What does this fold into?
Amino acid sequence: MNQLAEGLASIDYVIIGVYMAGVLIIGSYFAKYVHSASDLFLAGRALPFWAIGMSIVVSDIGAIDLITGADAAYQRGIAQANFDWIGSVPALLIAAFIFVPYYWRAGVFTLPEFLGRRYNAGTRWIHALVLLLFMLGTLSIMLWTSAVFLNNVLGWDHLVGIWVTAVVVGIYTASGGLAAVVMTDVMQLVVMFVGTAALLVLGMWEIGGWSGLVENILAQPGLDQDYFRLLLPHEPGTAYPWPGMVFSLGIIMSTAYFVGNQAVMQRALGARTEWDAKAGMLTAGIFKLLIPALVFLPGMAARALIPELAPGEAAVPSLINALMPAGLKGLMFAAFFAALMSSVDSYLNSCVTIFTSDVYRPFHERFVGRQMSDLFGLVLGRMLTVGVLLAAAWYAPRFEESTTLYDVIQTLLSLFQGPTLAILLLGIFWHRATGWGGLAGLTIGFCLTFGLNVLGEAVFMSEAAYLYVSFWSFWFALVVTVIVSLLTRKEPSAKLEGLVYGLVISDDDEPPRSTP
It folds into this structure.
């Protein structure tokens, strides 16, 4: 593959430079509004619904979808669209109307903090540690994906690509916090949608529309009508069989991702009102309907136009190289880099929030004997932002041997999605769920997910074993939580107020606000 850098014109470099400068200026601008840890981690709880919705979308579809998602569509076809249609929109509706009101009214900084209030400190601590491991791993994957893209597009060495991304994201995330992350995400979503729409139009025009796409794909050895089926038959070795897509992805994984993932829910926690928090989730759902066309169809078009391409991660950069004229190449570079950075900054900010609020703060209060001050929390948060980013960048090259990074991320998610959703549902809708029940369901559920992932394809007869891991671990954790809760003393009503259905704080009441 010819490097895209060979075809970049002066106008492309101007567009790239303007975009990079714009990101740094907008992101750093919000530093003047950051005076406390609450400002750094939750944007002073002043985010409007439109910014929340746009930020959720661009954070979710960044490094995962634009590069590795398009790669998966290149290899497996349109079934990949289910990760947004089945795997996003219904879950965002559930999050908006069922979970967000409890989270926002509780006034918490993190989801582990919410679980700690509903259950106990052990549940909070274990959930926080698992989320931290997941976020650190995902951050490294995202930085590596950025390096792959920059290598394919500009010919940069992988290490150079990793550190350029880390430096740019680190500057505005450490200085402006969540407000900077969200507002740069807004700009990045606009750039990304314009760029991917241009690539989609050019790709479909070149291939002769949908009929030309189908004709070219079916002419390739080893490909058949399954490439164009949303739901595949349940056969051994099938990548995305319909039972896993409908029951596990549609019901368990997607709901757990949007209601139990700190990187997603942190925006709602920073909303200025409960209405903004809920409307932000609904806005994200509307944008999500467009993602399969803008992300996965270009991957399929690349399969039709460049069938011999390897590795798959280079599919879309190669399509850019083949089709885009001067000016649009620079815009497309900006669009992809926007998506990559938006995912990195989101997970970086959320990872630091969890470490500060759920891991360090309890130790500080216990050994120092007083609450952590806002100023100390702000300084610590900025220092941790730099430290976490350095650690993720250092580890990123170890993902060089991974063939399908999309599956790696989904496997990491499956380690905690099922048990987390189980105790969240029981915690909100069942008064009788106890602290010991939640702790047992979460811990034993995590152990099961680890064992099932080790066994993997040998048990489930599918390349995407994570689809089944989340499903069975959810039900297992649910049963464990119920049994242990019934065997232990029930929680007092005062502890459950505002956290359980039927004991919700009135709309007129100001929710309690925790400090980091």
About this structure: The mean pLDDT is 81. The radius of gyration is 22 Å.
